[in-house]
């Protein structure tokens, strides 16, 4: 059975994409610790990050750096959080989020999916895409 992330990647469930290539995608978390919280996910459905092949792991981290800079710049924060938890969805994913302090590294304090403002989520995605130079599907603009 496909993971919820695979369903988002395949367009079966909605997602606010900010990045996409042949190896991975990035879209906003529906339960963000703050607006701009992005999930970076390999297209291959691999449960544990420790089971990824080294090439995919290296690529994810290269993309995480790029998205991290975009988040820091788009939201004018001193840092970008990077975290791997992996217990909620059995599909490797890296949490990337604009960070002001260590208190934001607590996923249990995230907004509930039904408490986020859709307009604020759309605006956050647009800001990130602007800094990455990507379109609404996450692809590089020509």
UniProtKB/TrEMBL annotation:
**Keyword annotations from UniProtKB, A to Z:** Hydrolase
Q: Where is this motif: Histidine triad motif?
A: 91-95
Q: Any idea where the HIT domain is?
A: 4-107
Single biological process term from Gene Ontology: nucleotide metabolic process
Give a yes or no for keyword Hydrolase in this entry: yes
**Which GO molecular function annotations are given, in alphabetical order?**
hydrolase activity
Which InterPro entries does UniProt cross-reference here? Histidine_triad_HIT (IPR001310), HIT-like (IPR011146), HIT-like_sf (IPR036265)
- One matching Pfam family, short form? HIT
What positions does UniProt annotate as the active site of this protein? 93 (tele-amp-histidine intermediate)
Question: Does the entry feature the keyword Hydrolase, yes or no?
Answer: yes
Quote the protein name from its UniProt record. Answer: Diadenosine tetraphosphate (Ap4A) hydrolase
This chain's source organism reads Corynebacterium flavescens
């Amino acid at each position: 059975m496909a993971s919820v992330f695979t369903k988002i990647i395949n367009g079966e469930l909605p997602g606010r994409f900010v990045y996409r290539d042949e190896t991975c995608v990035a879209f906003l978390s529906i339960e963000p610790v703050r607006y701009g919280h992005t999930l970076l996910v390999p297209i291959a459905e691999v449960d544990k990050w420790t089971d990824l092949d080294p090439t995919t792991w290296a690529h994810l981290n290269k993309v995480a750096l790029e998205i991290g800079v975009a988040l820091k710049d788009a939201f004018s924060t001193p840092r970008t959080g990077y975290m791997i938890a992996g217990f909620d969805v059995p599909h490797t994913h890296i949490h990337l989020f604009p960070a002001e302090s260590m208190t934001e590294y607590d996923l249990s304090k995230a907004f509930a999916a039904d408490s986020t403002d859709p307009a604020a989520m759309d605006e956050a995605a647009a800001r990130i895409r602007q800094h990455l130079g990507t379109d609404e599907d996450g692809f590089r603009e020509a």
